[in-house]
Design goal:
- The protein is an all-alpha fold and about 100 residues long.
- The protein has one domain.
- The protein contains 3 helices and no strands.
- α1 packs antiparallel against α2 and α1 packs across α3.
- The N and C termini lie far apart (about 40 Å).
């Protein structure tokens, strides 16, 4: 596995961590009456948070990769699914810390 591949799996885990709560909210919202409006507005409202998640995840993925490299672990010693879980766990932990500060 290359560093770029490892980074991609970290970002994938971070994206999952962010999108799972968003998906739950969307499912709940889909059960409610949906406002009528421009299809482009609906598409933009759907895509905007996903684009924001992608940008934030890319930044967090860099920090996670740097932390991983600082441990001295070889890239060949990690599997793709562990990398996704590391990314997921990393971001889920940051979310909990943020919720604790705001709550």
């Amino acid at each position: 596995m290359t560093y770029l591949t490892l980074y991609g799996y970290f970002v994938a885990g971070i994206v999952l961590s962010v999108l799972v709560p968003i998906a739950v909210k969307w499912i709940v919202a889909a059960r409610a009456d949906i406002e009528k409006g421009s299809i482009w507005l609906v598409v933009w409202q759907f895509i905007r948070p996903v684009l924001m998640v992608a940008g934030g995840s890319a930044i967090l993925g860099i920090f996670l990769l740097l932390i991983f490299l600082a441990t001295g672990t070889k890239v060949t010693d990690i599997t793709w699914y562990n990398a996704v879980l590391y990314g997921y766990g990393w971001d889920a932990t940051l979310q909990k810390i943020r919720e604790g500060r705001n709550g």
